């Protein structure tokens, strides 16, 4: 009898908690993406997306726009326009206009980094122009816009050439001596969102960008090891080679000769499979030639990127941090004046294997 009573009470408590949880979820608006643009005067314009899931699995995206002095105030003001309180704990993405990125993003990210309810895995991105048009799509798509953009970023990290990125990693690069952060650039056409490129920062101020594709592949190779990727390479003979299952391993060696300039050696080992080739015949010699041409091309692009980083005064590869780890008494203020004088030697080794090649 006691067991039956305990079971009945437990069941009642469980059902009650379920109803309470449902009531709580129904009584709040879960924000999944926020975009920030310049507003009037010192204010910022926030475009906030709240998805509403219907019983027929349809998703209705409702957009709110508010102006505020501080980023976190935007959702508080947005609550006054909504019939339920706005909650940002499940927010997937923050998007900043390029105009705001050219100022100091930490002015806008500071409140988010101090909020324990915010996931540090939150994606942060820069809009190609303004952020509002990326979000204010209302019901043009039957998906949660924030979740959709988050999935796009994760897919490009796991299967393409977007380096690992989120709020935590941006803050790590921002605070770590001898490193500078970067963020993906997002755009959209009439139907789809896409990663347009990568933007680079000195501190938290935008300084320059590269296009998504070959440039971001090489940047990722110089920055981190990764697996999975695909690239179509044009040879000197104007043939096309489709390289699949691209993986890349990176290592760094630092040489600090007494009284001389430091040398940083970045070693990249790239592997891939040749799946398609536009030429007439594939021989072992052809594969070796493609591998050698890719090595030369990646090395040339690496030199070009390093020159761009020096020109912008940014260190997204963490070269200063590599020296810091190998030199006692390293000081960041002493590093910046010699950044342009450091010898950076990039060694590229490409191994391509043939598998099911079609012409």
Question: What does this molecule look like?
Answer:
- With 359 residues, the chain is of the alpha/beta class.
- It folds into 2 domains: 27-212, no CATH class; 224-359, Nutrient germinant receptor protein C, domain 3 (GMP Synthetase, Chain A, domain 3).
- Helices cover 36% and strands 32% of the residues.
- It has helices at residues 2-26, 71-79, 98-101, 106-113, 132-135, 145-159, 167-175, 214-223, 284-312, 319-326, 332-338, and strands spanning 29-30, 33-38, 44-53, 59-68, 86-87, 93-96, 123-127, 182-188, 193-202, 205-211, 231-234, 240-255, 263-277, 343-358.
- It has an 8-stranded mixed β-sheet with strand order 4-3-2-6-7-8-9-10.
- Strand 12 (240-255) and strand 13 form a beta hairpin.
- The radius of gyration is 25 Å and the shape is globular.
- Residues 1-24 have low confidence and may be disordered.
- It is a lipid-anchor.
